[in-house]
Amino acid sequence: MDKKCWICGREEYIPFKCRFCGKVFCSIHRLPEQHACAGLEYAREHGSGSRNAGNTVPEADDILKGMLKNTAKYAAKSAVNGFGSNIKYSMKSSPSMAIIYLCVFSFILQLVPGYFEALMLVPGLLFERPWTLITHMFLHVGFFHLFFNMLVLFFFGPELERRAGKSGFMRVFFIAGIVAALGYSLTSNAPVVGASGAILGVFAALAVIAPEMRVYVYFIPMKIWHALVLFALIDFLYIGSNDMVAHTAHLSGILVGLLMGFAIRKDNKKDAQNNPYYYYRR
């Protein structure tokens, strides 16, 4: 039996098989409510008189129909479950949440005259102001720029922490952010701010470590690595456009995330071989 979780791709020593949909899940996503089980929806809709009444697995066509019919609802459920899980996780000194708090606090401080200008990255002044390689990640242009960056970090940062450890997450975030800034500086002289390069590095590393993880892009379910390819393709196509987005920074962050993700996955496999209970201790 496949031991990889259908939701996140994590391999369990003793996996859990859902009695409703027949898919394999890890300890985190084992309950039907935690993986938005289509088989459970089928059982609820058809009642005890259905062919699923005896806890048998519904046919694949029925599961697929249920998933297509309730895609938006599943996305909402997954978001709510992930939100609650990450809120609980954040209480345990999550570096992802610490970065979110710092970005929000920094956004408030941008009201102070001169604060924004002193910390933003200006490629032509990089050697005179090297600290901006890091500080630019904590600045954002407007509420929605901050909101969407922090939203992505909120959902995927803790997931990477669980698989790579807190120190592993910090390395990916800051190395990807710094390389993203350097990559951008080679192609543009315009000032740049934002954490998107670092966050896409986190997203890319997670896509390598847990490629089967399911994500929703505009309520469309897909594997996380499919979403990563989509984002990278969009950035590549829009290089050189005047849309005020640092596409080369995004691509540089993705590249770093991929490389570090493969290194982390290799280390995780070694740890798993040495200790079969490794994934439980994560």
Automatic annotation (TrEMBL):
PROSITE patterns (alphabetical): ZF_AN1 (PS51039)
BP-aspect Gene Ontology terms: proteolysis
MF terms in GO: serine-type endopeptidase activity; zinc ion binding
Coiled-coil residue spans: none
Transmembrane regions: 98-116, 136-156, 168-186, 192-209, 216-239, 245-264
Claim: Zinc-finger is one of the keywords in the record: yes
Boundaries of every AN1-type domain copy: 1-45
UniProt protein name: Rhomboid family intramembrane serine protease
